[in-house]
Design a protein that fits this description.
Layout: E1 2-3, E2 10-13, E3 39-43, E4 49-52, E5 55-56, E6 65-68, E7 71-74, E8 82-90, E9 108-112, E10 114-118, E11 121-123, E12 129-131, E13 133-138, E14 143-145, E15 164-168, H1 171-174, E16 221-223, E17 230-237, E18 255-260
Parallel strand pairs: 1-9, 11-18
Antiparallel strand pairs: 2-6, 3-5, 3-8, 4-7, 8-9, 10-13, 12-16, 13-14, 15-17, 17-18
């Protein structure tokens, strides 16, 4: 699946009647004759929205194959997850709608309207402070955690996936930092020493040997206790497809406040009888 407006990988292959790749459907200058045609991709399921990157140039095909990264954006942000079907039609009117024996000719993918959410938090200046920082999608009734997300933030998969955190005032001034594996760590503002394993910031799948931490759409954001009362503005720097119009009409990064020195109380009202 992909989030709305997130590029996804797609392979378009020209095939003959029996399902074999048509090698001379090629637009490169080194091939003669060149039979490739300009090709257009559309959503055959008619989901309300727009497919970007669906115009394939002749020279994008080599030996009958081209790899592209289109994206799909819903017409309305609050749209439940939908399945789009990619249909290809070239300038000669040849289309992937034609069913060939034992060949899947039109691929599908699930699109979700997504965002990254960061909520305010408060607590004692003597205790580490957790903040809810997670990826969400619109399920048709509300925004819910995307527990299927295990790669957002993983810059090793793609730099476009990168997620980091900004603290204002900066960590050196505020005497706090993000519990991470190191400094700057995955968050970009990690503490000088590694935090407890259960409180380390995480993003996506690990690309090194060893068990991969389960992301489940949760970045596991913990701020180290500062020891003094203070407040910090925390910003999550996220991919453009996970930005949301939190302030104004233009999508932007999620931002919240962490306040140390405020205590929780289970009491709503108290009185004394005399």
């Amino acid at each position: 699946y992909s989030y709305a407006s997130q590029p996804f990988a797609l392979t378009v292959t020209a095939r003959n009647f029996v399902g074999n790749t048509t090698q001379n459907y090629d637009g490169s200058v080194n091939t003669t004759p060149n039979f490739a045609k300009a090709t257009t991709l559309t959503d055959a399921n008619g989901v309300a929205g727009a497919l970007v990157g669906g115009a394939l140039a002749v020279n994008s095909f080599a030996a009958g194959v081209t790899n592209v990264q289109p994206s799909f954006t819903f017409a309305t942000r609050q749209t439940a997850r939908s399945v789009i079907k990619l249909r290809a039609v070239d300038a000669d009117g040849v289309t992937s709608l034609r069913v060939m024996p034992a060949v899947t000719v039109e691929g599908t993918t699930t699109i979700r309207s997504g965002r990254a959410s960061l909520l305010n938090a408060y607590g004692s200046q003597l205790l580490d402070l957790p903040m809810r920082f997670r990826t969400e999608f619109w399920n048709g009734a509300g925004w819910v955690q995307n527990t299927a997300d295990n790669c957002t933030g993983n810059a090793l998969l793609s730099p476009l996936n990168a997620v980091s955190v900004t603290l204002i005032p900066a960590p050196a001034q505020a005497t706090t930092c993000v519990w991470d594996s190191s400094s700057p760590g995955l968050s970009g503002v990690g503490c000088a020493v590694a935090g407890p394993a259960a409180r380390q910031f995480r993003e996506g799948l690990t690309m090194v040997a060893g068990p991969a931490p389960l992301l489940l759409g949760d970045f596991n954001l913990w701020l180290r206790q500062p020891g003094v009362a203070t407040h910090i503005t925390v910003t999550g720097n996220v991919p453009t497809w996970l930005q949301f119009p939190w302030v104004g009409a233009v999508p932007n990064n999620p931002r919240a406040r962490a306040t140390f020195g405020v205590y929780r109380s289970p009491l709503i009202y108290r009185r004394e009888n005399h």
